[in-house]
Specification:
alpha/beta, Uracil-DNA Glycosylase, subunit E, 6-stranded mixed sheet, two-stranded antiparallel ribbon, 8 helices, binds uracil, binds iron/sulfur cluster
Length: 220
């Protein structure tokens, strides 16, 4: 009988006694929690202040992020920084990370075409995100787009229906071992790449900024 085996997941590659994000980050290149490490250039871990109050969670590194080893350094990242700025959020309180920490792509000729991570990749990589949250204990986590929203709120969550709403910390991550002592809140919005692809970019950008302004109310 043919079975598709679920990947082992990241948990066993995460140092249980990690006391800092730097320690987590150091362990991340050793992750074999799913197959995505095989073709990507390198792992792209989160970055930002150890005491960040706001965590922005993207989907996965893009082509440029994969090459540079840093999240949100390409066009989507530039747009995100503009939106954060317009929303009046101090960038020094932000930690940027991704739901899945290796770039998933398909080779077409010499071009690497972005492929959305699947549910198995989200589940496999989720322990890294949870470990980041556990160390950061942020006031607010913002899911950028459907992949991050599914990782945080579960597979049936719809960004289009619930974007821009301040939500309690999601039940899926509420187990004490997931996030000790959390009184955080969460919010979902669209992904900056969706703004770049939108027919009406200005309207999409304003929508993103409006959602981030809701986020900013938690951070005053
Ligand atoms: N898109 C993401 O979701 N994350 C990045 O780091 C870059 C683009
Ligand atoms: Fe590990 Fe996540 Fe990379 Fe998969 S995508 S190998 S789970 S870090």
């Amino acid at each position: 009988m043919a079975t598709t085996q679920a990947p082992p997941g990241a948990q066993e590659f995460i140092p249980a006694d990690a006391r800092s994000l730097a320690e987590l980050k150091q362990a991340a290149p050793g992750c074999r929690g799913c197959e995505l490490y095989e073709d990507a250039t390198q792992v792209v871990f989160g970055r930002g202040a150890e005491h960040a109050r706001l965590v922005l969670v993207g989907e996965q590194p893009g082509d440029i992020e994969d090459q540079q080893g840093l999240p949100f350094v390409g066009p989507a990242g530039r747009l995100l920084r503009d939106a954060v700025d317009e929303a009046g959020i101090d960038p020094s309180i932000i930690y940027l990370t991704n739901t899945v920490k290796h770039f998933r792509f398909e080779l077409r000729g010499r071009r690497r075409i972005h492929q959305t991570p699947g549910p198995a990749h989200i589940t496999a990589c989720r322990p890294w995100l949870v470990a980041e949250f556990a160390l950061l204990k942020p006031d607010l986590v913002v899911a950028l787009g459907a992949t991050a929203a599914k990782a945080l709120f579960g597979p049936s969550f719809r960004v289009t229906r619930s974007r821009g709403e301040l939500l309690p910390w999601p039940a899926a991550a509420q187990r004490p071992q997931d996030f000790p002592g959390a009184e955080s809140r969460a919010l979902a919005t669209i992904h900056p790449s969706a703004v770049l692809r939108a027919d009406d970019r200005d309207a999409a950008f304003r929508g993103l900024v409006d959602d981030l302004k809701v986020a900013a109310t938690v951070l005053v």
